Structure formats: C-alpha cells, structure tokens
Amino acid sequence: MTGRLLVSTPQLDDGVFHRSVILMLQHDDNGAQGVVLNKPLGADVDSVLPGWGEHISAPQTLFQGGPVQLDSALGLITVPGDDDPPPGSQRLFGSVAILDLDTPPLLVMPEAGGLRIFAGYAGWSSGQLEGEIRRGSWFVVDSEAADLLTSDPDALWEQVLRRQTNELAFVAYYPSDPELN
C-alpha cells in the first residue's frame, strides 16, 4: 500500500483518525507507517524547528501526522519529475521524499516543490492494518500528487472520496453526526 491513501470510514468517529486521510509511506511484512494529511495543528513551525517555517507549503502550520511519537517531527517534500532529490532527502515513491530536518533549508528548498512537516506518524505492527481494513475501518484508494500539499486540509476527506469512480464517492456525503441527518 506504499504511496496509496487510507481514508477512514465513518465508523472511525473519534480522535485523530476521525475523517482522516493517511498517506502510506511504507508497508511491508513488518508493518506500516503513514502520516495523516488533514489534521493541521495550528502550531508555529519555527517554534519547534527554527528556520523551516517560511518554507512550509500553505497552510503554514505543523500537522499531526498520527498518534505515534508526537514529540518527533517528520518532513516530506515533493521533488519535481525524475530529478534526484535534494541533499538531506530520500525519495520514497513518486514525487514524495522524506527529509532530514537537520539539513539546512537553503540546501533543500531550491530543489523541492513543496514541504509539509508532521508531528508524529501513524504506525501499525505486522498484520494490524490488514485486520483494520478487513473490519471496515479504512478505504484504500490511490493518491494524487496534490494530496500531500493540499491547501484545504479540512476538505481533503470529502475531496478524496468524491473523486472515486464507484459507490465509494457517496460516502463523502455521510453526515458528520448521523443523528442530525
């Protein structure tokens, strides 16, 4: 599932996973890791990582990548075309590269298409994610280049579902609170 999106189903109705969209960074027999793309924290990046704030793609804030290791930061950049990623980064898939945030921003940003920084990540042990998918907690869909750096993270859950070409598109209209339907 590396490079694909996990979209929470309406049954995940609380916490960081409520209406979340997760970009899968790694998935193999040992487990999986990803970052939640649509949970901005409203925190100033420079207060945590001085020098990076002015380089963040809009909205210029730290994002909650998931419930695991919230005291750590993970940077993702986009790398245009088939170019080699900038110094201090490593391509994960497609145009997405992970960034060593100890690298000076001026070495990275001239070659990057955009940057997002996450506090923490979402992680699953071997077989755990597959079990959650079987129980109906997640939809697995293809990602698009614009998902990582969306300028409207609050609308991403609905946007990703609406662009599906099957009955899954109807889930985008599921009310946030079914009792108000």
Question: Can you tag this structure with a few keywords?
Answer:
mainly beta; ten-stranded mixed beta sheet; AlgH-like; 181 residues; globular; VC0467-like; 34% strand
Descriptive notes:
One of its GO terms (cellular component) is cytosol. InterPro entries: AlgH-like (IPR003774). Belongs to the UPF0301 (AlgH) family. Pfam families: DUF179. There is one protein chain. With 181 residues, the chain is mainly beta. The protein has a single domain, classed as VC0467-like (3-Layer(aba) Sandwich), CATH 3.40.1740. Helix content is 12%, strand content 34%. The chain has 4 helices and 10 strands, in the order ββββαββββαβαβα. Strands 1, 2, 3, 4, 5, 6, 7, 8, 9 and 10 form a 10-stranded mixed beta sheet that branches. A hairpin with a 2-residue loop joins strand 2 and strand 3. The longest helix has 7 residues. The radius of gyration is 16 Å and the shape is globular. The termini are far apart.
